[in-house]
Specification:
117 residues; 4 helices
């Protein structure tokens, strides 16, 4: 159970902007940078002080999740640098980025598979 208070309007706006910008940065890198996998930024949650962004990514095909998560971790600093250039006019500090795997698609596929049985 999540006991944190609901996100404020500014927090939500910043999270949406970061999601758009990060999705564009990843799109520009291309599928080849991620071993041919398709990477989608599905959600961004930002801390109340706007210092930490939890970036949820979904990866297709799911067999490449481990490798892609490693690539994202290894490139976190350069991605944050690119993000800084994108948001420098809106944010005073660029949040630290934590990449997390969004497993909701896998979960939905699993439920779908169970329902078909």
């Amino acid at each position: 159970m999540d006991n944190s208070k609901p996100a404020g309007t500014r927090q939500l706006k910043v999270a949406r902007e970061l999601q758009r910008d990060l999705a564009e940065i990843i799109r520009r890198k291309g599928m080849a940078a991620f071993g041919g996998a398709m990477v989608t930024v599905s959600e961004v949650r930002i801390s109340p002080d706007l210092s930490i962004a939890k970036v949820f990514v979904s990866i297709f095909p799911s067999e490449k999740q481990g490798a892609v998560m490693q690539i994202l971790e290894e490139n976190k600093k350069s991605i944050r640098g690119e993000l800084g250039r994108e948001v420098s006019s809106q944010l005073r500090i660029v949040p630290d980025i934590d990449f997390l795997l969004d497993t909701s698609l896998d979960y939905a596929a699993h439920i779908d598979e169970l329902l078909r049985k």
